[in-house]
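ARCHIVE CARD
Drawer: 12
Card no.: 0347
Subject: one protein chain, sequence and derived structure
Cross-reference: see card 0346
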Amino acid sequence: MEESMTMDMDMARAPKMMMAGRSGGGYFAETNNGYVPNAEDRKIIKNGSISVEVADTEKARGEAEAQIATLKGEITNMNSWEVRPGVLSYNFTVRVPFDKLDEAMEKLAFLGVKKSENISTNDITAQYSDTENQLKNLKSRRDRLRELMDRETKDLGDVLAVDRELSSVQNQIENLERMQSRRDVNVSHSTLNLSLMPETQIGDISDPHWTFTKSWRMAINDLIGSAHDLADKLIKVIAYIPLWVPALIVLWILKVKFVDKKKATKKKK
């Protein structure tokens, strides 16, 4: 029994992956046996961002949402902030099918004036293939452990050891499968960050609600706060009189007794 377990627990490691061969500005994943996947078999994560200045952010927001829906995308996050009274800027996080990213960016650019644009790609073919090999080996190991569990044995210790190892292997499989699922989603759907900004106008400031009255009130409140701080310090000084006044008296006595007396003695000489 122990010999069988030892053999089962010696799992072959998945072949290491390496990046080799440049073609079309990208890298192909290559395994130790020299296999290079075809372009359609590569796992590439592609994301983008675009910033557009528009005349009417509310109108542009509606048009952007319609275009995203047409491309079978979805908005996963949206935040806004006020630039001037009644006028908002928007940031969207959008998920669109991988093959629709370029089209989405082209259509969104026509909402106004494109101020910035960025596209990034990440080839995870090697990591994906390596994980698939790990899963294949782990599943084979799991099947062998299940066979051991089905065998009749009177040794409870062996049964418990196999059960623990089987649980550990199953947990590794589930973790790797979740990782692959996330990778599949990131490969099949791109993330697009969209910013809609209103055209700059005279009077745009950091605080769109600034008024002289509001600023005056804030200044008075700061003055009152400073006065409170000063009053607190004075109160502390008065409260500590029983401590620092006797100390000053003792220091004054010592000064008269020793320092002044020494000076008087020198003058007599």
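Annotation on reverse: The chain has two domains: 1-207, 212-268. Residues 1-29 have pLDDT under 50 and may be disordered.
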